[in-house]
Amino acid sequence: MSQIIAIMKREISSYFKSPMGWVLFGIYAFVSGLYFSSMLLSSYADPSGVLQFLRSLFFVLIPIMTMRTISEDKKNGTEVLLATSPATTGQIVMGKYLGTVVMFLIISSVNLLYVLATLGYGGQIDIRFFGTLIAYLLTAFTYLAIGVFASAITENQIIAAIISFVIFTTFEILGSVSSMIGSLVSSMFNRIDFVQKIPATFDQAAGAAVTKALDWVNPSNRLAGFYSGT
User: Could you tell me where the DSSP H helices lie in 55-199?
Assistant: First the structure.
């Protein structure tokens, strides 16, 4: 456990020893603050809405956060030092992953200001906010794991970021077109059934199964109930 914590601390400090950590924090704070300010100008303060909006930043924020996690060590040859350390490969990966998680939580801590501002203006924090917060964090933790994986399969940071971005985009595309693909599957079974031996209910069930499978792949769809507070 001590090895994991040591690697995690090293990972966190690396963000603040380079401009990247500060730039990411600044961009996140600026964009989220701008969005929340626009809500206040409309006499409407909703931290849940801010979190849902900020989820759209994951496509850019998380690939940039994770692109150097392991690829930089591979490029500089420092992964050899890690490999010969007392820590196992699993501990190294876990330490680096937890480092990105803690860094993400530090960046996201700015949302506490919006909660306090909402309460200060007489607003209320209902159960939907906590559901949205859980979904926001679980989605982020999943995407961070994917980003670390992408960083592990290449020593080029840009390629690692692109791989993460493509995977995240694919998730969203599948979620958007899942119903369409399910309908196409149902239609396909109907067209190939020349002798009318396939029951109509099977066509519909096959299409529905494909739709559910594609929705299951998308982390955002799986957590939709949390975002809606149900």
Answer: 58-66, 71-76, 79-83, 89-108, 111-120, 127-152, 157-192
DSSP 110-132: THHHHHHHHHHTT----HHHHHH
Secondary structure letter of residue 56 according to DSSP: G
Please answer whether residues 146 and 169 qualify as being in contact, where contact means their C-beta atoms are separated by less than 8 angstroms: no
Instruction: Print the domain residue range for 31.
Output: 2-158+223-228
The reply to whether 207 falls in a domain is no
Contact 85, 76 (CB under 8 A): no
Looking at the domain assignment, is residue 201 inside a domain? Answer: no
Q: Taking the model in full, what pTM does it have? A: 0.77
Three-class SS state of 4: helix
Question: pLDDT digit string (tens) for 150-160?
Answer: 988 888 889 99
67 close to 135: Cβ distance less than 8 angstroms: no
